[in-house]
Amino acid sequence: MCDTIVHVDDGRVMFAKNSDRDPNEAQALEWHPARVYPAGTSVRCTYVEVPQVARTHATVLSRPFWMWGAEMGTNERGVTIGNEAVFTRQPYTDTGLTGMDLLRLTLERAADTDEAVSTLIELLETHGQGGGCGHEDRGFTYHNSFLVADPHRAAVLETAGSRWAVEEVTEGARSISNGLTIPAFARQHGDRLRTRVSACGMRRERTQAAGQQVIGPADLAAILRDHGGHDAPDYSPINGAMAAPCMHAGGLITASQTTASWISELAPGAHRHWATATAAPCTSLFKPVEVDTPVDLGPALTDRFDPATTWWRHERLHRVALRDPVRLLPRFTSERDGLEATWFASPPDPAAAFAEADDRTARWAADVDAEVAAAGRDVRPRYVQRYWRVRDRRAGLPTVIGAR
Fold first, then answer.
1. Counting beta carbons within 10 angstroms of the beta carbon of residue 355, is it exposed (0 to 12), middle (13 to 18) or buried (19 or more)?
2. Average pLDDT for residues 242-250, to the nearest whole number?
3. In angstroms, rounded to a whole number, what is the distance separating the alpha carbons of residues 180 and 201?
4. H or E element that contains 133
5. Distance of CA 12 to the CA centre of its chain
6. What architecture is domain 3-297?
7. Count of C-beta atoms within a 10 Å radius of residue 259
8. Which of 57, 59, 104, 134 is most buried when burial is the number of CB atoms within 10 A of its CB?
């Protein structure tokens, strides 16, 4: 479950996305240079192989570790795309291009929004969409919608099987979530029950309203960190804290967690991007990223705790702080917001920013770790505590001394 927002005004397009997936589904931030391929080359995606194009653009991608495709990303031309799971009444297929495959292939091939929409449609109609998209449940599948942006405009592309609809965004805010939003297309193809369970209506109502007020990247960060107007995640036994853009897992029926977040400011000749490369934007820093400046974030990610990786190191802070967020988040969020403000105003060298973020995250994690160990408090509902104990054990994540 995810949310993606754009705000289009004169001379600039703002873009933001939370990627919500299974809690241990670490998401890799990775850089791919432009490449030239000989005729007849093919590319193996998550489940299927498709013909490769003669030249691909350089990209930065935020990718679930086990997939070929990506949840969000950008390319050297400033084309930036976010993907959403949507639930429809059209048949689902066992194989095909996943929505993440479609997104990555398009970023590699498209030079602007119009070309991106055309590429997505061509890939969809030629190769179809399908295949399991869940990490814990590989049989979980869905159709996809996309929010595409470049420095001049944006567009929404929604799909239901091989069918599709497009809406251009020329001014103001537009958000998408886990339900079809183009009215006639939604009435014809939407699955009302699964869409309702995803709680996407509540999330989209908040992101759409807040998106109208966006001035700069800090406003987008605030939208992605929104707990639905509450100081802390508001859990439901059915779907955890799925009703807010900053999503936290813990439901008995369905559960999803924000595993990575992204912000872009797109203007002609000036593309600026910030990514968490970590889960839970409420505990993360948005670090500057550049298409032509790779950063070493550690070895390849898996669903097992690895302190050599940026994503998993941050999980110590995330999972401890959420035991008692009203008390623990303020111990570091003011400092985080101050540092982040300087990076939004004048992005430093990405490697230096990631190094500083890592140092501060380690210090904040040690602080909240000690506080929880001393107090031994976990204020979340018991079913949420049980849910996370299982995920921590599966990941081999060290427990907090003294925590209950």
1. middle
2. 96
3. 10
4. none
5. 22
6. 4-Layer Sandwich (3.60)
7. 28
8. 104
Q: Can you give the pTM of this predicted structure?
A: 0.96
- Residue 403 scores a pLDDT above 50: no
Residue 30, classed as helix, strand or coil, is strand
Q: Please, is 39 exposed, middle or buried when counting C-beta atoms within 10 Å of its C-beta (0-12, 13-18, 19+)?
A: exposed
- Provide the token pair at 247: 């999503």
Q: How far apart are CA 238 and CA 315, in angstroms?
A: 24
Q: Say whether pLDDT at 155 is over 90.
A: yes
* Residue linked to tokens 């489940």: 47
User: DSSP per residue over 153-204, as a string?
Assistant: -EEEEEEETTEEEEEEE-SEEEEE-SS--SHHHHHHHB-HHHHHHTTHHHHH
Give the separation between CA 68 and CA 46, rounded to whole angstroms: 5
Say what the alpha-carbon torsion angle 280, 238, 63, 27 is, to the nearest 10 degrees: 40
Which residues participate in catalysis according to the annotation? 2
Q: CA-to-CA distance for 117 and 106, rounded, in angstroms?
A: 8
Query: What is d(CA 387, CA 255) in angstroms, rounded to the nearest whole number?
Result: 9
Q: What are the E-state strand segments in 103-171? A: 143-149, 154-160, 163-169
Convert the pLDDT of each residue in 248-275 to its tens digit: 999 998 889 999 999 999 999 999 999 9
DSSP string, 195-217: HHHTTHHHHHHHHHHHHTT--SH
For residues 298-322, give the mean pLDDT.
97
- Cα dihedral 64, 70, 76, 80 in deg (nearest 10): -120
Taking a C-beta distance cutoff of 8 angstroms, is the pair 19, 62 a contact? Answer: yes
Give me 371's structure tokens.
Answer: 């506080």
> Can you tell me whether residue 114 is helix, strand or coil?
helix
272 neighbors 288 (Cβ within 8 angstroms): yes
